[in-house]
From TrEMBL:
<keyword id="KW-0698">rRNA processing</keyword>
<keyword id="KW-0963">Cytoplasm</keyword>
<dbReference type="GO" id="GO:0008168">
    <property type="term" value="F:methyltransferase activity"/>
</dbReference>
<feature type="binding site">
    <location>
        <position position="74"/>
    </location>
    <ligand>
        <name>S-adenosyl-L-methionine</name>
    </ligand>
</feature>
<protein>
    <recommendedName>
        <fullName>Ribosomal RNA small subunit methyltransferase G</fullName>
        <ecNumber>2.1.1.170</ecNumber>
    </recommendedName>
</protein>
<keyword id="KW-0949">S-adenosyl-L-methionine</keyword>
<keyword id="KW-0489">Methyltransferase</keyword>
<comment type="similarity">
    <text>Belongs to the methyltransferase superfamily. RNA methyltransferase RsmG family.</text>
</comment>
<dbReference type="Pfam" id="PF02527">
    <property type="entry name" value="GidB"/>
</dbReference>
<feature type="binding site">
    <location>
        <begin position="127"/>
        <end position="128"/>
    </location>
    <ligand>
        <name>S-adenosyl-L-methionine</name>
    </ligand>
</feature>
<dbReference type="InterPro" id="IPR029063">
    <property type="entry name" value="SAM-dependent_MTases_sf"/>
</dbReference>
<feature type="binding site">
    <location>
        <position position="79"/>
    </location>
    <ligand>
        <name>S-adenosyl-L-methionine</name>
    </ligand>
</feature>
<keyword id="KW-0808">Transferase</keyword>
<feature type="binding site">
    <location>
        <position position="144"/>
    </location>
    <ligand>
        <name>S-adenosyl-L-methionine</name>
    </ligand>
</feature>
<dbReference type="GO" id="GO:0032259">
    <property type="term" value="P:methylation"/>
</dbReference>
<comment type="function">
    <text>Specifically methylates the N7 position of guanine in position 527 of 16S rRNA.</text>
</comment>
<dbReference type="InterPro" id="IPR003682">
    <property type="entry name" value="rRNA_ssu_MeTfrase_G"/>
</dbReference>
């Protein structure tokens, strides 16, 4: 499918303003430019960048409720965190923290955030170091294609203990991940169908507490 048709399909799923669509265009232009030298996403996904990456990320928007602060673990080229920041630009007080340890990807994230004026801060560091130093509040933790939910809960324990909810874009193994993590965590979670991927699931973790003892 040509890029223009993929863009039209993605935008038909997303209720975004003309201004947001323009910002997303800037994002995609930069991604295509940087990709030739920095290899930021799997080349096979570029043809469907709008549906595969942007619309996939943006489907979390309605689930943010009134969240002000989002922390995105392992942002890569910005999915889902940077898309949420761009699409949420008009929400008062909204801010997304993008945590990405790869320096080349972090530079790209900074460049897109600057060019789109997205309310985002890039933390070029390991998630473990970020959470250890984190002193703020987080309403939501997001992640896509980073780790099974049990590992995400380990990484974000401090944030979940303080009341953050999790929004994780998952594949077909989401049920099994919850079963595995349930050995160590008491989890209130819901699995919603992905709008963009028939095998995908959106995992909504409303509460997670580590089980004590064996
Ligand atoms: C498979 S990519 C997924 C990127 C993006 N979330 C997406 O869905 O396209 C995982 C990303 O997480 C980053 N990452 C992995 N472990 C990390 C850690 N402990 N701290 C910070 N970033 C990490 C990697 O550098 C990589 O960019």
């Amino acid at each position: 499918m040509p890029l223009e048709a993929d863009r039209a399909l993605a935008l038909s799923h997303l209720a975004v303003s003309h201004e947001t669509a323009v910002r997303l265009d800037i994002y995609v232009d930069l991604l295509l430019r940087w990709q030739t030298i920095k290899n930021l996403v799997a080349p096979s996904t570029l043809e469907h960048v709008w549906t595969r990456h942007l619309a996939d990320s943006a489907q979390l928007l309605p689930l943010l409720d009134g969240a002000h602060t989002v922390v995105d673990f392992g942002s890569g080229a910005g999915f889902p965190g940077l898309v949420l920041a761009i699409a949420g630009v008009d929400r008062p007080g909204f801010h997304v923290h993008l945590v990405e340890s790869n320096g080349r990807k972090a530079s790209f994230l900074r460049e897109v955030a600057r060019a789109t004026e997205a309310p985002a801060t890039v933390h070029a560091m390991r998630i473990e170091d970020f959470t250890a130093a984190w002193r703020g509040n987080a309403d939501i933790v997001t992640a896509r294609a980073l780790a099974p939910v049990g590992d995400l809960l380990d990484l974000g324990e401090k944030l979940f203990r303080a009341g953050a909810r999790g929004l994780f874009l998952k594949g077909r193994g989401a049920d099994q991940e919850l079963t595995d993590a349930g050995k160590y965590w008491r989890i209130d979670a819901q699995l919603l169908p992905s709008v963009t991927d028939p095998t995908g699931r959106i995992m909504v973790v409303s509460k997670a507490a580590r089980r004590s003892g064996p």
